[in-house]
Amino acid sequence: MNTRSNFDQSLKELKALQLKMAGEAETAIKNAMLSLLNQDIELAKKVINGDNLIDNLEYEIHEKALMLIARQSPVAKDLRRLHVALRVSSEVERLGDIAVNIAKSTVHIGNEKHVKELIDIPKMMEMALEMVTDAITAFYSEDQELARKCAEKDDQVDEMFGDLVKELLTYIPQNPDFTNQIIQLAFVCRYIERIADHSTNIAENVVYLETGNRFNLNA
Amino acid sequence: MNTRSNFDQSLKELKALQLKMAGEAETAIKNAMLSLLNQDIELAKKVINGDNLIDNLEYEIHEKALMLIARQSPVAKDLRRLHVALRVSSEVERLGDIAVNIAKSTVHIGNEKHVKELIDIPKMMEMALEMVTDAITAFYSEDQELARKCAEKDDQVDEMFGDLVKELLTYIPQNPDFTNQIIQLAFVCRYIERIADHSTNIAENVVYLETGNRFNLNA
């Protein structure tokens, strides 16, 4: 194989590893949400203990990408491609951390009956997860259009976050014994809002890859 | 100049840029805290608007580090040095984001009188800022000992976070009208706890640089 096809083959392997990592992070987030909804402490602990795998994948991706830069001295878009691979894997690692944070909130709440049925939190999560899927797909297929579409949803998640926290707080005066649970749920809303932010960051990296210019799609 | 001294000179310039970036992030955090304590909305807005500078520095550092890898093909510890430079600048960028989050909480609270004098929050912040300083110094001087010392403080900050949020919640039943402010203060405690986490991450990178092995100093 010549150098170019070596490079392309290495890039392909790197991308496969990144897809694997993104899949692990998505599963962790979904399981964290399920653990919260079903008050499934065992599942929450599984999410917490599984985060090491995602952290290790990030290191593996970083090391492979840097070795590739050192060995092949890519320029222009090829160098940007590897830059973006580094940045996106760091964003995905943060998604894994957020899954852990949500799982920890599940553990904090424990078996205490929910102050109300959780309806809007999973709705907000659904929207944030759509953004994750769009951002990863846009990254994988280098699709600027989809990246911009993904980032557009961020405002909606922000709005839901504000409304949801406001609503949650109204439950406290009538349910002072549930204050701890309610604050944990407010934290969860904040974590979901962060999932949307990290998805937007991934989308921005897709635009950077194509144009070489940084855009703040989140402004 | 030979290649080695070229490389060393470039590394030196990169580190100077990183120190500048870390200084900006520290100032942003301190100003965010001041804006919260003094209910200084103007200062909070300055922090929010100033974050672009920190984001741009991160990109500049990433681009310089990757160009250096592509041009000089460093190996072993030199390659790790640049890997760590990339990772540390991303952690510092998150510190800038946290300053923005705290400043946004200041804006949310606005001019509403504080439900109580803020004493423990600045104490917790003081400890987190000590960790930032130690982590950055350890990074700059490649001082493993200091990196480990820094990471040891993380548990104390975590404990303060738990205690503080618990205490904050006790104010809600007697002060239901202050619920929104109290939840903002709980978020601020969470942000400070994240500052300690990012400092620990920087410290872990210093240990990785020296040993080539990843350590979870935060476990």
From TrEMBL, chains A, B:
One Pfam family from the record: PhoU
SUPFAM superfamilies to which the protein is assigned, alphabetical: PhoU-like
Gene3D superfamilies on file: Phosphate transport system protein phou homolog 2, domain 2 (1.20.58.220)
UniProt keyword Phosphoprotein, yes or no: no
Residues annotated as domain PhoU: 20-105, 121-206
GO CC field: cytoplasm
Transmembrane segments: none
Chief site of localization: cytoplasm
Family annotation (InterPro entries): PhoU, PhoU-like_sf, PhoU_dom
Top-level division of the source organism's lineage: Bacteria
GO process annotations (BP): intracellular phosphate ion homeostasis; negative regulation of phosphate metabolic process; phosphate ion transport
UniProt KW keywords: Cytoplasm, Phosphate transport, Transport
Flavoprotein recorded as keyword: no
Subcellular location as annotated: Cytoplasm
Biological role stated in the UniProt entry: Plays a role in the regulation of phosphate uptake.
Self-association state and partner proteins as the record states: Homodimer.
Recorded family membership: Belongs to the PhoU family.
Protein name: Phosphate-specific transport system accessory protein PhoU
Gene: phoU
